[in-house]
Design goal:
238 residues; Rossmann fold; alpha/beta; single chain; five-stranded parallel beta sheet; globular; Arc Repressor Mutant, subunit A; 2 domains; four-stranded antiparallel beta sheet; 38% helix
Length: 238
Amino acid sequence: MKARVLIIEDVAELSDLVALYLSKEGMDTRQAESGEAALALLGAGGAEAFVPDIVILDINLPGMDGFEFLHEFRKSGGCPVLIVSARDADEDIIAGLGYGADEFVTKPFSPRVLVARVRAMLRRVQDTPAPRDGAIVRFGPFTIDLDACMLKRGGERVALSAKEFAVLSFLIANAGKPLGPEAIYSGVWENAYGDMTAVAVYIQRLRRKIEADPTAPRYIETVYGMGYRFTPEPEPAS
């Protein structure tokens, strides 16, 4: 089955170039010139429906910008998002990660390198072996299904991005152990070098989604001088 890629880029020539390179790699691409057009495509029903395996997103878009699109998309979409933008300030990169992006590539870029990044992101998602034992983990009111890549609170699904799910799964797999940012980055990003601030960004995002009070977390604790520790607690009896 072909990998499906949604390209959201308002510069037609660049969008066509990226689509051409991805198509040569056997990927099924769709293109949208704005965030609104992308949401309409994602929300289409029947034969018009398109469910991407990865989204390539520009920030500077007409109307709804990339950050606004990402905010809306992450309410229900969990596939990886790769931001491609000429804006390379630390604040923009941190904001992109904070809104739910998984990777950030700055323009100008080599199309061949971009394709390699896309393939690497898809491989991390598609080739991650699902654990056979303990695939269902419960903590407090939450249930995480590691096979289905799904987190629920009660019977209601909690929307997580692919990277958010990977970080939470890694913490759960190492429950009770303090993990430094380097260990988390190496385990989730599969890279010993990179921007370690991404770890703190994803920890903050997870806390906003699973903690009753993100400033006083029960599950993802800060172990000062060491890093973070996942501590499951049973839901209090009623």
